[in-house]
Amino acid sequence: MKAVLIAALVSLVGTLFGTPMFIRYLVRKGYGQFIRDDGPTAHHTKRGTPTMGGAVIVAAALLGYAAAHVFSVTPPTVSGLLVLFLMTGLGLVGFLDDFIKISKQRSLGLRSGQKLLGQTLVAVLFAVLALRFENSSFRTPASTHISFVRDLPLDLAFAGPVLGLLLFILWANIIVAGTSNGVNLTDGLDGLATGASVMVFAAYVLIGIWQFNQNCQWNPSSKCYEVRDPHDIALVAACVMGACFGFLWWNAAPAKIFMGDTGSLALGGALAGLAIVSRTELLVIILGGLFVAITLSVIIQVASFKTTGKRVFRMAPLQHHFELLGWQEVTIVIRFWIIAGLCVALGLGLFYAEWMVGA
């Protein structure tokens, strides 16, 4: 437990004091956010605000993870390293996208095909490695079973080892695409995605600790969890939670820096990785309910416009709809944080309720 606290503290301090130094560097370089003219007019005042702040979040999370293992004199685990790899890999894709935007002062960075290719390559490598590295209990970081709060009877390996692997890779890519795009679409108002992410990663700290205390490897029972490295999962979640918390000090309205695609893709990747290695793949839909709702608003808007020529919302994603209705940005952010908190509470409630009634 001490290692988890150290991880969160080091990551928090890293972003709290590292972010202003990064802001000064970006200002000297003239790397500011490009704002689209077709968005809410209130956003025009944000033009030139430093972006790519997600780089600080990733760096602080990695520092916190390393510091926690040095402090506890324990080696890192495969599960933890794989989640960090997924986070860092997607963060790199987002960094390239952000850098092209700010260097060329345009709203389009990487082409959609290039961005998708980068995300897919990282996710495929993660999925392949996650089914390897058995420990002494013959457990791998991930499972071919579809999971909710633990593995469900549906096993993708039913089709054979090769096809089962391909199906798992496809499933992992769907999860990664869903979470990364969900956080990316939510990151449209000062502090919105960062604050919501703090809550979701905090939930995974609790889930990891609970799975560690009730793990089949050292506490076998009818309700135990078949998770390979639950303590390190909690530690990774604490690193990202702490990094987001410290970054929120500078990202809250009025934001001194934006996380950019560097941060949103990295956080989405970390969320997907935690869901897969903790065997809570479907539960993440509830825990990240705010991200899901905002993503659905975009899907509904596009589908409605293409089929009927009419828009359901004044503007998508959903937060901009309320802006155009006249809501103040801070009001939207706080109310959306409340929604995010309720989703996290519901998800944790379902997780605990399942354990209470038995598997």
Please render the helix and strand layout as text:
Layout: H1 2-29, H2 54-72, H3 78-104, H4 112-130, E1 145-147, E2 151-155, H5 161-186, H6 192-213, H7 230-251, H8 260-277, H9 283-287, H10 289-308, H11 318-324, H12 329-357
Antiparallel strand pairs: 1-2
Provide a descriptive summary of the structure in words.
- This protein has 359 residues and is mostly helical.
- It has one domain (2-284).
- It is built from twelve helices and two strands, in the order ααααββαααααααα.
- Strands 1-2 form a two-stranded antiparallel ribbon.
- β1 (145-147) and β2 (151-155) form a beta hairpin.
- α3 runs parallel beside α7.
- The longest helix is centred in the C-terminal third of the chain and has 29 residues, at 329-357.
- The model has no long low-confidence stretch (mean pLDDT 92).
Question: What is the compact description of this entry?
Answer:
This protein has 12 helices and 2 strands, in the order ααααββαααααααα.
Report on the biggest sheet. Answer: 2 strands, antiparallel
Number of continuous helical runs: 12
- Class by alpha and beta content: mainly alpha
What coarse outline follows from CA principal-axis ratios? globular
Order of helices and strands: HHHHEEHHHHHHHH
Question: Could you name the ranges where pLDDT drops below 50 across 5 or more consecutive residues?
Answer: none
**Mean pLDDT, as a whole number?**
92
| Residues in helices, as a percent range | 55-70%
Question: What's the number of extended β-strand segments?
Answer: 2
